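Slide 14.
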Amino acid sequence: MDTVGFTMNAIEIENLSKNYDKIRALAGVSFTIEPGEVIGLLGPNGAGKTTLMKILTGYLEPDAGEVRVHGIDVVADPIHAQKRIGYLPESAPLYHDMLVQEYLEMLAAMRGVSYGDRRDRMREAIRATGLEDRVVQRIGTLSKGYRQRVGIAQAIIHQPDILILDEPTTGLDPTQIVEIRDMIKRLAGSTKTTVLLSTHILSEVEAACERVLVIMEGALRADADLEELRSSNAAVVAIEAKADGVERLLEKVEGVAGVERLGDPAGDFQRWRVTSRTAQDLCPELFEALRTSGWRIGELRPDPKTLERVFRDLAAGATAEAAGATRKKPTTDKPKVKKTRPKVEKVEKVEKVEKVEKVETTDATEKEAAEVKDDVKSEAAS
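Slide 15: predicted structure.
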């Protein structure tokens, strides 16, 4: 969808908090996303990603904070906000007895697509997700990869401004994962839709996203462009192991924030990692300082950060903070209270509702689905 002309943020979240009884799911999360961005929402299992997405899509109310979608308050006006959003939850809401064409037509009607526009919207969604040859196939007979495609098709059929995908590649094989990633990138590039992709797989974010939000222990730990996160602010240098005073010399180099010995000597050389106070490359300054030292240098190179290292460092910091909070938490001894179970009267068993007979697909429906398939193929050929 064309986002040219929008002057407001696609998503605005401010001081968002949510607890499940005594479990903190989100704690003061704030960020904004501009129209057309492809954002990776990264975090370990249980970090709060799904809770955030449910609040953002209006399925769950926060305990505190504000959520706006293109200026619409999601809590105050969830129906209006949901019209601007396409959502694929972790478990796609599919009806396995329906044909792909039947299911998409039903979802188009539920999303408010007018009768006259439904066939065109279905063609566009089918073409975008590569379902041309599966239009008249029952969803239950599709592979998991194709079922995920159907789930994405239902999320984009009403041409939303924002597409939210929760773990879209979970349970897929490597080939299917690559296909889904490529499809997400095509959708974002062709429609200029804002995409929020939730995952705990680092390579998925690197392959499909341009910016990453990292959530751990319910708190936002990082919000940066991938290039910024990966920019090198460190260097690795290998100096002859018998050299004396290496650490002191390296610490005196302008711009150096810290010096770390990397393990034991390997052969005749000891490796050191030197970090910078800024994102500048330290190698020229280090070379100039070492040039007159008389020491043999076996290696000098930038040490670029990887998303894996950033994620690991953030996880270690979150774990340390959680451990510190646990140690500081005061303990109070409470008198034990004997619990008594209240007497509950036996409720008579409700008779089972008779199973509704399965609705058979009519020949007319099969014919109409075949027509949609032929239309899509003929347009693609032309």
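Speaker note: Residues 232-302 form a domain with the Alpha-Beta Plaits fold (CATH 3.30.70.1340).
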